[in-house]
Amino acid sequence: MSFSIKEWIKRPEEPFIVAGPCSAETEEQVLETARLISKDSRVKVFRSGVWKPRTRPGHFEGVGETALEWLKKAKVETGLLTTIEVANTNHIEAALRHDIDMVWLGARTTVNPFMVQELAEALKGTDIPVMVKNPVNPDLQLWVGAVERLQKVGLENVIAVHRGFSSLSQNKYRNYPNWALLIEFKSLMPEVPVICDPSHIAGRREMILEVSQRAIDLDTDGLMIETHIDPENAKTDSRQQVSPAQLAETLDQLVFRSARSSNFEFLNRLEQLRKRIDKIDLDIIDLLSARMQIVEEIGLYKKDNDITVLQIERWKEILKNMIAQAENSEVNIEFVKQVYQLIHEESIRLQTDVMNQKLAKNDE
Ligand code: PEP
Ligand code: MN
To answer: Where are the alpha helices (DSSP H) in the chain?
Structure first.
């Protein structure tokens, strides 16, 4: 086998593509899916759920250990490496016994530090690569904590998987991507490769390409895409799985851009553009500072004349003018509204402070 996950983790330059069914259902389904997937050399690892975490009982819960034999056959025949989800120590023992190459912790496991710790202890002493899905809820610390627990027992090959988050509000995703949280994860743990699972974010196959491209544009290191020989009739997650042909099509359409470049001219131009941005950012802070000084002056003036801090008509007028300006300048109106809401809140806070200080002085 020429591809080594451990080597890749040290230099994650080419995208790490994991594909395979949500669940292993039959030997035929596993082998046929693996055969077709393996025709595409971009796919390195074959995934399959063996024990399935179902929200409610009474649904297909995976075929269990039997499937590990099928995965072994798939690996021998196709050369693809294999990965499964593990959620307890028995799962880990079985995975190791059956030569599974890599394991992953599911979103319902990452939420529970007790479980993560138990799994970390069970994996201690092995050097099996582990993928850690983000927790179901948008809690960055839980995700970081799970990765740390694995690293602390000496596991060096940990990869994070962004699979989106449950959300109370209705939106077009099955699991809301919360890209900002992904970016924060990457800045807290820059040494940990992150791949994206667009299947569980999108929840429907029509959206896999769009979500994958978005993730790649944010410099993620690869993708995990649920792929099934007969997606429509899959026993789990049938709406979001793609066929091996659709997988290849998706990979063809994606534009992988490099976050790094050694082209001197490119770097030079990028540097110049960044310097301009830095200058504008400093100007923004200077302008905010100047605005807030005037706000303080107005606060004192209002106080001396017994006028309330908030004058709703004035606020409406500012907002109207700024929206008009945004329209003229082709800046996103929603964005400008939000920025002005924050500026206004801060101005009110400052004026209220100024008035209270003045009051305190008068009391002395
Ligand atoms: C899966 O990968 O099939 C799965 C159950 O994922 P998650 O833990 O992200 O829900
Ligand atoms: Mn699934």
So the answer is: 5-10, 27-38, 66-78, 89-97, 107-110, 113-123, 140-152, 179-188, 198-202, 208-217, 244-253, 264-304, 312-329, 333-363
Q: What is the CATH number of the domain that holds 324?
A: 1.20.59.10
Does pLDDT of 360 surpass 70?
no
Domain shared by 176 and 225, yes or no: yes
Q: Is 47 close to ligand 1, i.e. is its CB under 6 Å away?
A: no
Residue 259 belongs to some domain of the structure: no
Structural domain containing residue 335: 264-363
With H, G, I as helix, E, B as strand and everything else as coil, classify residue 124.
coil
Q: For residue 101, how far is its CA from the centre of ligand 2 (angstroms)?
A: 19
CATH number of the domain bearing residue 147:
3.20.20.70
Out of 104, 105, 175, 197, give the residue to mutate to test ligand 1, the one with the largest number of ligand atoms within 8 Å of its CB: 197
Range with the lowest mean pLDDT among 37-46, 265-274, 294-303, 331-340?
Answer: 265-274
Q: Give the model confidence (pLDDT) of 95-136 as tens digits.
A: 999 999 999 999 999 999 999 999 999 999 999 999 999 999
Q: Is the pLDDT of residue 364 over 80?
A: no
Q: Which of 206, 230, 253 is the last residue of a domain?
A: 253
Same domain, 303 and 224: no
Q: Is residue 258 part of a domain?
A: no
- pTM of the entire structure? 0.78
Whole-number pLDDT of residue 118: 98
Mean local confidence (pLDDT), 42-54: 96
Q: Is the CB of 133 under 6 A from ligand 1?
A: yes
- Largest distance between two CA atoms of the chain: 86
Q: 174 CB under 6 A from ligand 1?
A: no
Q: How far apart are CA 242 and CA 256, in angstroms?
A: 20
Residue 361, pLDDT above cutoff 90: no
Q: Which numbered atom of ligand 1 lies nearest the CA of 200?
A: 9
Nearest CA owner, ligand 1 atom 8: 106
